[in-house]
Specification:
Enolase-like, domain 1; Arc Repressor Mutant, subunit A; 3 domains; alpha+beta; 5-stranded antiparallel beta sheet; Beta-Lactamase; 10 strands; elongated; 12 helices
Length: 346
């Protein structure tokens, strides 16, 4: 294990101020400006000596284009772990989140809303993993005919989860056929597990294939497609607010920004990060290469798991530049995750 870095009060105060100035405008901070910002009655020479010491410890670096310094990943990590003072979330924001995360919405809507809200409040990209559906009980189903041998299935499960699925079938089905099929399913199977309904229908068809009527053929053929589970139908995570990151592109390498957008599309890497976050309580912060993504560079991820009925089911977080406002963003991510869990278990 690395030996922890211990700073004296003056070095800690100057590092904290340097990080605050860097977060504010993304520019290297010179000794004279640092003295003014920190409000310390010490000479620029003294500050340069402290900065030189911090640089030897790997906490700050002087870009080749400037005499000023910026924090390194290690410097930001030390700041977050030991110097950060987190701001509490205002009551009005908590009330707004509770109103927006309405328990009457289905799971997909709530997850999407949470991603949008955390993005808007932090001006970063909001990302939320979608909880896996462990079981689904049929509440109601409808079928609507579409052109080109397609049918729209609208299925309500578990009281309020709504799923729309376009079915590609072998022939055209008219409105009457689909209405009879929906009526049969709703009357006979409401309240039962969706997977068990599908198995039961296929079993009935096998046992009575010789004398099955046209209505039952329609029921089985349409329901088989509608009730089948397909992991591709449900996204495993939702990202919103990526365009917020473009405003940092003037001070961020555009190639890095492109890499970041590509990471959002790489399911394996994102899900790997979520797995690291969900196995444990509380907020987690990954700075730069700590996230384990090639090309992640000067960016950070802040995540918090959310739970339903005491079980951790997903992760909510933000992705953005490493010079993000950690003191503001950390509590926003934390409270949004908690309120999303509250809404889901309601």
């Amino acid at each position: 294990m690395n030996t922890p870095i211990i700073l004296n009060d003056r070095a800690a105060m100057l590092l904290k101020q340097l990080v605050a100035s860097y977060i504010d405008d993304g520019q290297p901070v010179g000794s004279r400006q640092l003295a003014l910002d920190a409000g310390l009655d010490i000479s620029s020479a003294t500050i340069r000596n402290v900065m030189s010491s911090l640089e030897k410890k790997g906490l700050v670096v002087a870009p080749h284009t400037s005499a000023g310094r910026i924090p390194t990943e290690q410097g930001l990590r030390l700041f977050v772990d030991t110097l950060l003072e987190v701001e509490p979330v205002e009551d009005r924001l908590i009330s707004m989140l509770q109103d927006k995360l309405n328990p009457d919405k289905d799971v997909g809507e709530l997850v999407s809303q949470a991603s949008q809200l955390v993005s808007e409040m932090t001006q970063m990209a909001g990302i939320v993993s979608v909880p896996k559906q462990t079981s689904a009980r049929l509440r109601h189903i409808e079928f609507l005919p579409l052109p080109d041998k397609r049918v729209l299935a609208i299925m309500v499960t578990n009281e309020r989860d709504v799923q729309n699925k376009v079915l590609h079938l072998e022939r055209e089905y008219n409105t009457n056929e689909l209405q009879h099929a929906a009526n049969y399913l709703n009357q006979k199977f409401t309240g039962q597990d969706v997977d068990e309904i599908r198995k039961s229908l296929l079993l009935d068809l096998d046992h009575s294939r010789q004398d099955v009527d046209n209505v039952m053929k329609t029921v089985v053929e349409v329901a088989d497609k509608a009730l089948s589970s397909n992991s591709d139908d449900q996204p495993e995570y939702i990202v919103q607010g990526e365009t917020n990151l473009v405003r940092y592109s003037e001070k961020t390498d555009r190639v890095q920004l492109q890499h970041l957008f590509e990471i959002f599309d790489r399911k394996r890497e994102m899900l790997g990060l979520f797995d690291r976050c969900v196995h444990g309580n509380g907020v987690k912060i990954f700075i730069g290469h700590e996230a384990g993504f090639e090309g992640f560079g000067d960016c950070s991820v802040i995540t918090a798991p959310y739970e339903v009925k005491g079980k951790l089911v997903g992760v909510l977080g933000v992705v953005g530049p490493a010079r993000m406002d950690y003191d503001h963003i950390i509590p926003v991510v934390d409270i949004t995750a908690k309120l999303l869990g509250d809404a889901l278990k309601s």
